[in-house]
Amino acid sequence: LDRQAYFWNIANWDALDKRATSDVFRCGGHAWRILLRPFGSSHKGVLSFFLE
Predict the structure, then answer these.
(1) Tens digit of pLDDT for each residue in 6-50?
(2) Maximum Cα–Cα distance for the chain, whole Å?
(3) Domain range list for the chain
(4) Global pTM?
């Protein structure tokens, strides 16, 4: 098993809009990015996190 890590520093968390996307990174031979919805997709108080 090949282990890799990606660190994404999100500055000004309180100022985020409805969504934030990371830069594209490579892991496991694939290109990925993270889609973050700090207020959830449809509910307040929920964090939604997607790997694209």
Answers:
(1) 999 988 888 887 888 999 999 888 999 999 988 776 667 788 889
(2) 38
(3) 17-51
(4) 0.75
